[in-house]
Amino acid sequence: MTDITELRAAALVSKAWPYEEARKLLKRYPDGAPAKGHVLFETGYGPSGLPHIGTFNEVLRTTMVRRAFETLSDIPTRLIAFSDDMDGLRKVPDNVPNKEMLAQHLGKPLTRIPDPFGTHESFAAHNNALLREFLDRFGFDYEFVSSTDYYADGTFDAALKGVLRHYQGIMDVMLPTLRAERQATYSPVLPVSPKSGIVLQVPIEVLDAETGMIAFVDEGERIEQSILGGKAKLQWKVDWAMRWVALGVDYEMAGKDLIDSVVQSSKIARVLGGRPPEGFNYEMFLDERGEKISKSKGNGLSLDQWLTYGPDESLAFYIYREPKKAKALHLGVIPRAVDEYWQFRGNYAEQPIAQKLGNPVHHIHNGPPPAETLPVTFGLLLNLVGVMGEASKAQVWGYLTNYVPDATPETYPALDRLIGHALAYARDFVAPTLRKRAPVGGEVDALRRLDAALAELPADASAEDIQNRVYEIGKTGGFETLRDWFKALYETLLGSEQGPRMGSFIALYGIANSRALIADALAKAE
């Protein structure tokens, strides 16, 4: 058991990015807890769409920084998941029913639009419920905050008055960033029309900052109206800054595409007399062609897709690593992420404290991972179910029992779940790509020698003994390199260009079954 003093000392110098981020917060409050009594982390969400992998990404990484800070400091922390549900609906989403009904409410706050699904009091309430269900599913510790609630209940009143007091200063920040035609109509404050209920994009006149009174033109009529009590919201960059100041947000990260927005909102926060939060800009995910993932293009990998083919720990592992580097996010990265997660998890127990704090599993599990080990790799499972074809979990366990004497779903529950992922991945992604070719030239003789060598081994031969025989044949079989021999085995026996350690595969699949694969391959050569 690591002593908390030793843990804290190691965390203070750890190069793991969550600790580097957490140390920014230590410097932010060198004299201890802030006046509000806690350090506040925030992650934002626009409820016009459904939760997705980007939502998981941001909340997970923020949580990792929060946990790292809690290792370094005794100052209490909070994490709020802020829903910008006062935002006006700009367009009708593609993946919802009753689109004609929604089209009639364009421009209105999401909390004042009927739920097209018919299950909640508003469209925002429906999507907010999905967000909370989504975050709860992964066990995140957070407090949900509704923008509409805070605008309406007075939480933002003091900050909103500050926006009117510093109206010109905010305009001075924003106008240079806008095109000339946008400058003419831009206003940091968006009043809600008393006539149509739409969030208006119109110039305003500040009448009295202390009472929140403004004037604006609505359908040709001059209206005087307070911005308090939910009768207005702010443009989002101004809203972001106001929220930081009103709530005292200390840490919030954002994607690289929002770097300019962070700069502008930070300037506005200072105009309002506040201090922008700490944070960093993470890189975006790319598709297999190296293009930025876009929800509208549909060229990304959804959260449900990943969790169909790999466990959530593997996704957390992939998200943890190199957050400031653009990474491909497609089905092909899942097997490696699964196996690397388990490799790092297997190394954890024997590592010194400094290495443990740099191990991704430490941040995934907020400390030591569960003790369970994995007797086979995910890659080996995929090769097994690939040659089995249509298979059930029970059939896969039948092979595993021969390979690992005590292998049962009860003794290896994580492996049992992983078999389900492997069956799904092999069925949907591997099987359509498998193309076994006939052996050619010297490959034919080498396969015959391998068959003879396997015939001499007992049925329970170890993976190491089998691997030695495979090596011997590859070294003396006329191949330029051992790589060529293994490539021939993969292509003729498994139907893929890459594959597992053949000794492990043959031991798992069984010598008799493996000889049958060889016989099938040799039959094609005749």
Features:
Rossmann fold; three-stranded antiparallel beta sheet; 526 residues; mainly alpha
Tell me what the structure shows:
The protein is mainly alpha-helical and 526 residues long. It folds into five domains: 4-153, 3-Layer(aba) Sandwich (Rossmann fold), CATH 3.40.50; 178-234; 303-352, no CATH class; 378-433; 442-525, Arc Repressor Mutant, subunit A (Orthogonal Bundle). It is built from 24 helices and twelve strands. The chain has helices at 4-11, 17-28, 53-72, 99-103, 123-137, 147-152, 157-165, 167-174, 180-183, 236-247, 259-271, 303-309, 312-320, 334-348, 353-358, 360-364, 378-388, 393-403, 413-430, 442-456, 463-476, 482-494, 502-509, 511-525; strands at 39-45, 77-83, 143-146, 189-191, 205-208, 213-218, 221-226, 232-234, 254-255, 281-282, 285-286, 327-328. A hairpin with a 4-residue loop joins strand 5 and strand 6. Helix 8 (167-174) runs antiparallel to helix 11, helix 10 crosses helix 11 and helix 20 (442-456) runs antiparallel to helix 21 (463-476). The longest helix is centred in the first third of the chain and has 20 residues, at 53-72. The model has no long low-confidence stretch (mean pLDDT 93).
